[in-house]
């Protein structure tokens, strides 16, 4: 974005209310043509909205988000393949499945945590398929990591090299780009206080200067 474009987006966002929390300052608009629903990135999970963390970083409201066309399972085992707790009978925002084996079911928050920990080794926890599993997870709003799996120790990489260093907001407003950061002010990068695997500029997620912690939509 150019500086002028960024200022215009900020001015427009102050006029828009989040359809989830009803507060002003919503910077994200559903990408579906004709839909004017706007929302804050931290509110997205509560509103069952989806942001695709690749390409154009498109976002969708609950009505227009992509949905998985999975066939019903033959087995009656309604448990998450990751945490083994109960999942819903049908595919929904909170319950997802593998497009390859069609049998695996898992909670959205479980598969998101697995994706961040597995990194480049991310695959279906049941059939071990990587394609088209990985592609579908991206489309459904799961954020992938390009790092090695967290369970593989790499002695050549120091702690400072492992720190996440980019803004993952659906719409980054920073004129310097997603990897531009400042030590304070609107372009200070705030990492998720739970997983530290996602970050946001303060302004991009409407975080005030007094906000000391922030959690990503996954956590």
UniProtKB/TrEMBL annotation:
GO terms for cellular component: nucleus. Residues 1-65 form the PHD-type domain. One of its GO terms (molecular function) is zinc ion binding. Keywords: Ligase, Metal-binding, Zinc, Zinc-finger. The keyword rRNA processing does not apply. Coiled coil: none annotated. This is G2E3 ligase. It comes from Loxia leucoptera (White-winged crossbill).
């Amino acid at each position: 974005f150019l500086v002028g474009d960024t200022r215009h987006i900020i001015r427009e966002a102050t006029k828009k209310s989040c359809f989830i929390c009803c507060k002003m300052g919503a910077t994200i608009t559903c990408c579906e043509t004709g839909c004017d629903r706007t929302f804050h990135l931290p509110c997205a999970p509560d509103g069952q909205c989806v942001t695709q963390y690749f390409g154009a970083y498109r976002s969708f409201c609950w009505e227009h988000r992509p949905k998985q066309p999975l066939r019903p399972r033959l087995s009656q085992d309604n448990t998450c393949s990751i945490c083994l707790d109960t999942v819903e009978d049908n595919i929904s925002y909170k319950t997802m499945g593998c497009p390859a084996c069609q049998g695996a079911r898992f909670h959205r928050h479980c598969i998101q945590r697995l994706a961040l920990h597995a990194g480049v080794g991310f695959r279906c926890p049941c059939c071990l398929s990587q394609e088209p599993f990985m592609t579908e997870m991206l489309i459904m709003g799961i954020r992938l990591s390009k790092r090695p799996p967290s369970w593989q120790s790499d002695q050549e990489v120091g702690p400072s090299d492992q720190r996440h260093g980019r803004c993952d907001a659906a719409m980054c407003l920073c004129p310097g780009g997603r990897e531009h950061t400042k030590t304070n002010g609107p372009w200070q990068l705030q990492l998720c206080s739970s997983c530290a695997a996602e970050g946001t500029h303060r302004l991009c997620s409407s975080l005030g200067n007094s906000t000391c912690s922030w959690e990503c939509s996954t956590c």
